[in-house]
Amino acid sequence: MSANVGRRMLRLEDDRLLRGNGMYLDDIHVSGSLHAYFVRSMHANARITGIDVEEARRAPGVRLVLTGHDLGDLNGPLPLLGPHPDLLAPRTQRPLAVDRVRYVGEAIVMIVANDRYIAEDVADLIQIDYEPLPEVVEFDDAGRDGRFVHDDIPGNVAAVVSQVKGDPEGVIRSAPHTLELTLDIERSCGSPLEGRGVLADWDPRRQKLTVFDSTQSPVAIRQGLSRILDVPLDQLEVSAPDVGGGFGTKIMLFYPEEVLVPYAALQLGRPVKWTEDRWEHFISANQERGQHHQAVVAFDDNGRILAVSTNFDHDTGAYIPYGIAVPAVTGTHLPGQYDIEHYRYSGRVLYTNKPPVSPYRGAGRPQGVFVMERLIVAVAKRLGVEPWRVRRANLIPSDAFPYDTGLDLHDGSRAIYDSGSYVEGFDRMLSHVDVEAFRERQRAARAEGRHLGLGMATYVEGTGVGPYEGCAATLNSSGRIVLEVSVPSQGQGHATTFAQIAADVLGCAVEQVQVVTAAGGPNAVGHGTFGSRAAVMSGNAVAVAAQALRTKILATASVLLECSPDDLETGNGNVFVRGDENSRVSLADIASGSNPIRYPGTERPVPWVSREPGSEAPVSLSATEYFRSGQWVFGSGAHGVMVEVDPGTGRVTIDQYVVVHDCGRVINPLVVDGQVIGGLIQGIGGALLERLTFSDNGQPTTTSFLNFHLPSVDDLPPLVLDHLETPSPWNPLGIKGTGEAGIIPVVAAIAEAIEDALSPFEVSVTSMPLFPAEILAAIDKD
């Protein structure tokens, strides 16, 4: 085993962050900055019949007031991510609404003033006249006469996503048993600790536009802004500083603010800054989850699942900026770890008068797992057996990998599970849960009037989305290794895990490696962090670049040590002759020996290597390499949860949670644990605490943390966390992503546990999240 990869070590970046030395968007202050504020629609669906901004323009301290009419061609539809043949009627938002608003929170006017207080006060001087229109809020509204989010789209259908594997309809007709369930998951959102924000500064002397953006993909922002604003790439730099959480919310490309703040900076020749407050986040940041499923399962007397079919509606909000990604991922991930020969899904993607949808941590997978696991439990109830027995009987066997699901992913690649040991992972979870002992405790508790319940769920997570990432690795004159990557961090521990990979290749201490993000400048070598891809794509790029740098280091050291590179080895920050560690040279001395300029204070008695050995090229102790992949890799896991439900109050208490998780080869178990636990607690929020609600006319009724309750550390239950490693054969490091794994099965597992606890009341859980009042209503109803 390597010295560093696989080692449980503290994160290098935490000392700085825990001491309050992080640099987040709102910590960046540029002298002379102006501040932006956006006037947003108070109607969910309305025509704009007039906008009067003249009084606002004359107000003291106001520098710029923009409407959509002022933007000209710039106010065209924002980019569509992932065009796809299944998109029947794609529509994306304009930077500023002109004639029509389609959700509460849509931006209409931008105000730039000397400070944010002035800008917000001046917003009251702007007069906007509306003609309200009938709203499309719930799925049933989409097909009603006279209700249109976009007037030219019948039925408000943006897309239909569907695939068929085998002959599910024929098997369902002839199967010994069938069941049908109606299932719902409500809307939620990412709620990162740090809201969105943009700061832009145009320097006329350097002819350079510098943009700081709290984003997950500064590379894509830079590329897109160059085209949208007609600013040459060499005059544009986009940086993501420390980002206080993303969870998919900050991968949207583009939010209107990301275009308009840089545009205002160009127009005014002054720095312009906008930071999102929490109210703005609730009404204008993208959301996710909302789906309604009609699902059918066919099975035999032994609990073998013969076929699954689901028709579902997916709420995409007022626009569809991220294409079909979320509903398509639901469809392709729904079968999960189960070997289902016949399968069909068909999803209608519907426009509604709500904020647009883009991926939120899990990105369609929690919905699919909820449906599949609810079907599993229904099958078990019909047959009178424990649900775990049905699950285990249908798991894909370990000798079936790579396993072709027969389904195509939305990016055109095939969903092929690269590796796994689903039976072993499930059995590990069962051993931690100990079903028989739990049933004994459950029976004893019921005799006391207490209601305990057990739930489980399995899942797969497609990760490592391509097509490529790169890394520039350099040995500098101080003997430090600098890795430049293009994936910013929102807490994933990149500065530690990438350093561990490089340190093993180069034979140095982890602390000797510095990881920097060069995502927004001319040295950008990749895309961004989303879809649990950073470790797979950038991690392997780091390994390849470090290996290329090692080759150069050994070649240079061979001249200094007067031997063949093949006779050299690395370790402890030195290069030494194999078998003779006294014949060695440090990385710092190698860097010095490759530099003909001896800067003051850096002279060392080291010979100068004037050129690459065997070449006329000058010595370069730097290497840029790429890792490319067109094939996803699939992590997996099994969760078990034990709860107690109070039938008098509806309160759910989680007594213990078990996670068995497989992300291939683990780089740093501590970092992986953090990612899984973070996802788990978000999943608990999604199961028991969080739901975005809207009134009948589309007004959001959850616009603060007073009525949208986030989980806290007190909600984290006693936890058993176990790692299973089945290395992926499809990348050199054998790793799989893990950023979204923890959240995916939580809602499904808790739903089963609640239903199991309330089985004496014959409660059926068909909708999540569940709040105490709804549990009480279900008990009373049944």
What does this protein structure show overall?
This is Xanthine dehydrogenase family protein molybdopterin-binding subunit. InterPro entries: Ald_Oxase/Xan_DH_a/b, Ald_Oxase/Xan_DH_a/b_sf, Ald_Oxase/xanthine_DH-like, AldOxase/xan_DH_MoCoBD1, AldOxase/xan_DH_MoCoBD2, AldOxase/xan_DH_Mopterin-bd_sf. Residues 19-134 form the Aldehyde oxidase/xanthine dehydrogenase a/b hammerhead domain. The protein has 782 residues and is an alpha+beta fold. Helix content is 27%, strand content 26%. It is built from 19 helices and 29 strands. Helix 9 (325-333) packs parallel to helix 10 (365-383). The longest helix has 28 residues, at 534-561. The protein is globular.
Question: What descriptors fit this protein?
Answer:
globular; molybdenum; 782 residues; Ald_Oxase/Xan_DH_a/b; 6-stranded mixed β-sheet; alpha+beta; AldOxase/xan_DH_MoCoBD2
Tell me briefly what this model is.
It comes from Sphaerisporangium flaviroseum. The chain has 782 residues and is an alpha+beta fold.
